[in-house]
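User: For documentation purposes, I need each entry recorded in a consistent format: the amino acid sequence on its own, followed directly by the corresponding structure tokens. There are two entries in this batch. Please keep commentary to a minimum and don't merge the entries.

Assistant: Recorded as requested. Entry 1:
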Amino acid sequence: MPAAGCVTIELTMLGLGTLTRVARELRQDLTAAQERDPAARGIGRGEILLTYGGVQALLMHRVAHALNDSGIPFLPHAVANASRVMTGIEIHPAAEIGDALFIDHGAGVVIGETAAIGDHVTLYQGVTLGGTGFARGKRHPTVEDDVIIGSGAKLLGPITVGRASKVGANSVVIHDVPANSTVVGNPGHPVRVEGKKPGGPDADWAHLPDPVADAIRALSRRVAELEKLLAEATGKRPEPTAEVRPLRNVRGSDPASG
């Protein structure tokens, strides 16, 4: 049988059930955009579908994923490539994506072949769920339900990001993240675990704690204490070899406070 005939039969085998599932997932994706993007709350669902690249990329991925699961050659990757060209978002057809994912802005988002994303997850622009090495098998992250991943964050390797966790903007995460945690930095460091929340609202990436700055601040205090003890013991105050300025909070006021 010619290849075109095989593709026609396989497309027919997708059936009404698959189309119904894709339509249901699209409705959930549109609802997620309306609920999580303040700019989308005043516009209709049709306008969101026509103008939001993240929603368009998800719709095309869900079609490509259904084709891929059915074993249809060429078409899944063709649809995925068309989505990448149109939206700037690259999602491998084999990636597993749950319900109500919201990709905010979306440019530069990359989701690898063996990545798995749970329900009600939010990704901001420039997020990478990438692999490490060239071995086959599971090599991309698993992101559980209700996770938020900030702009430019890179999650690399077969790690698991636990439920309801948050990854700060531009973090590089290469180890598992416990549930209900907040991770920031390069490499990523947990700064909140099991309900101990940082100051500022959950969506305020500018006010997440900085573990590196905290460590430097602690060292600065320790050096000052040692210099004081040395001065008391010798009667001489050591002269600094360079100007030392105290660390201060330059993040400004809380933008979510009104």
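Entry 2:
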Amino acid sequence: MKSTDDRVFDNTAIIVSDGCCVQIGNTQALDDVTFSITKGKKVAVVGPNGGGKSTLFNALAGLAPVVNGSLKINGLDPQDAKGTISYVPQKDLINRNFPLSVKQVVEMGLITRNSLNLFARKQINLKIEEALENVGLSDKINENINNLSGGQFQRVLIARGLAQDADIILLDEAFSAVDVGAQEDIMSLISDINLDGKTILVATHDINNLEEKFDEVLCLNRHCCAYGDPSEVLTEDVIKEMYGSHYEMFKNHTSESHEKHND
């Protein structure tokens, strides 16, 4: 595992956080967070409720300002790198009772002022079809989203992210609103999907078998407790640092236990 200094100044990194601090109201939500992620990695972001996972994703998406330190995406501040990021938040604002089709939801990530151009329209349709094929929902392209299961709807949101051609995809608690079977299904999808060098960060409460699912893990409890290969960094001390003296209860903890809680 690289030292912090080595990782911060690694010029192959796509995301570099160097002493990043984010304040929400009067609360220091992230404090002196340092890590570096190279292109093409699948990274689990783990930690307790209130540990800063959603805050980090909001900061990466340019929605929460960095008050101290720095957070860079391809060397740019998040506000200047928004086209690089595709963000699927913990609670999507789409009303599933509204009569939208799967195609329309995926298309939401692609609308531009040039969308009415016939050539652009054809390209958009191709991107939508390719993204839905990647998540195994080609046959649902014209389905009303109200008819989808929770797992299928989550796949649609992932497809929307893939269609944007962003370099980085952020999935915040992708498993929190679906049952255990759908969680496994989505995790298999993330593992098998053709990312074409994309970097994917997944916030999750489930710390079981991360080494089988992710290249790296970022452990957060307002600060960076550890970052690196899951088989190396998820030690008893690190889990205690994240979850406190009650860490034993998290050993076999899955996201379904937190379906009613926010980060």
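Summary note for entry 2:
Confidence is low (pLDDT under 50) at residues 1-10, 246-263.
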